[in-house]
Amino acid sequence: MKRRNRTFELFSLSFLDLISCGFGAVVLLILVSKTGEDVNNATLEEAKEVLAMITEVERNVGVLEQEAEQRKGRIESQSRLLDKLQNERALLAEKKSAAAAADQKAEDDLEGLELVEESLNRASIRPQMNVQKRDDEVGGIPVDSDYILFIVDTSGSMQRIWNRVMAEMKNVLAIHPQVKGFQILNDNGVHLISSYNGKWIPDTASRRDNVFKAFAGWRSNSNSSPVEGLEVALKKYARPNIKLSIYIFGDDYTGGSYNDVIDRLQILNTNKLTGKPLARVHAVGFISQGVSGRFGVLMREVTKRNDGTFLALPKN
Q1: Would residue 218 be called left, alpha or beta, if left means φ above 0 and alpha means ψ between -120 and 50 degrees?
Q2: If you compute the radius of gyration of the chain from its CA atoms, what whole number of angstroms results?
Q3: Distance CA 66, CA 84 (A)
Q4: How far is CA 85 from its chain centroid?
Q5: How does DSSP classify residue 251?
Q6: What is the pLDDT of residue 126?
Q7: Average pLDDT in the chain
Q8: Each residue of 214-231: b (16+ CB within 10 Å) or e?
């Protein structure tokens, strides 16, 4: 077989393709290499800027934290100073209150002494009468009243001697032979039996027992001042045509002026036609722990001006 001789061409299609591909690869590498260099340079600059910003922020945060600590210290110091001033203010307020209470007590004691002196002066100029003088400290209570009304201090100090209070009330009822009715109020004018408000409780043995059973468990607010109770008693129960005796049971008087009570009672307890008291006002003074003698000072004058007797019971 005859062999053909081939002619070798330098710039054949395959060679050109190879050259083109290689050139394209080189161009691509150049482009890629240049773009990556630009991106990296831009990223590095931005990173430097961000790092600088972070550093600046951290520095500012440190400064702010330092200022905050300083302010916190100043606030704590001012808070301690404020607490100290408030404590001093509270102590001063307590001292002021104690001083005011002492001044008020001194004024009340002085007023009580003036009342006693006035009573003694009246007794010294009163004309002597051919009657037996009654000892207001011990006895001599008239027992001709048809109606008995009790005004009882229901404060905590009286509650501690409640059984004795109840026993003395029963004794008062026992010494009055002709009691038609009775009533029990506390020093604020609150009725023991609300259903008998404005009415008399009939005096029978069974009714007494039931009333005193209720009285044994009676707990009512009290201000240790019989003013309100006296006003309710005189307005609702004092009448010119009945014989009424009011008995005030207490151990202390926490009100203000003595004269206000005495003057108010005299207005309410005066018969407008005769000028005489509508009711006799008696008082029984108990001695309990931690109380003053103001109740006795007031009740001596109240009972003297209202045909009554003040009995000061011994401490048992």
Answers
A1: beta
A2: 51
A3: 27
A4: 24
A5: S
A6: 42
A7: 79
A8: ebeebeeebbbbbbbbbe
Q: Is the Cβ–Cβ distance between 185 and 235 less than 8 Å?
A: no
Q: Which residue has the tokens 């951290």?
A: 58
With beta carbons less than 8 A apart as the criterion, state whether 242 and 149 touch. no
Residue 148 has pLDDT above 90, yes or no: yes
Question: How far is the C-alpha of 159 from the C-alpha of 186, rounded, in Å?
Answer: 12
Residue 125 has what pLDDT? 39
Whole-model pTM over 0.70: no
Specify whether the CB–CB gap between 234 and 266 falls below 8 A.
Answer: no
Instruction: State how far the Cα of 47 lies from the Cα of 33, in Å rounded to an integer.
Output: 21
**Distance from C-alpha of 300 to C-alpha of 283, rounded to nearest angstrom:** 8
Q: Give dist(CA 149, CA 243) in Å, integer.
A: 11
Name the residue type at position 198.
Answer: G
**Location of structure tokens 């083109």:** 20
Of residues 57, 211, 64, the one with CA closest to residue 148? 211
- Strand order of the β-sheet with 181-186 is 201-202, 181-186, 147-152, 244-250, 279-285, 310-312
Contacts of 86 (CB under 8 A, 6+ apart): none
**Taking CA 268 as the corner, what is the angle to CA 266 and CA 271, rounded to the nearest 5 degrees?**
85
Q: Exposed, middle or buried by CB within 10 Å (0-12, 13-18, 19+), for 146? A: middle
Residues 6+ apart with CB under 8 A from 174: none
Range name among 47-56, 73-82, 226-235, 298-307 with the lowest pLDDT average: 47-56
Q: What residue spans of the chain are helical by DSSP H?
A: 13-125, 156-159, 162-175, 205-216, 227-237, 258-268, 294-305
CA nearest to 218, candidates 155, 261, 275, 265 = 155
In the numeric block, which tokens belong to residue 147?
């109606």
Q: In this structure, what token pair is assigned to residue 268?
A: 């309410």
Rounded Cα distance between 18 and 22, Å, is 6
Q: What percent of the chain shows pLDDT beyond 70?
A: 73
Three-state SS at 201: strand
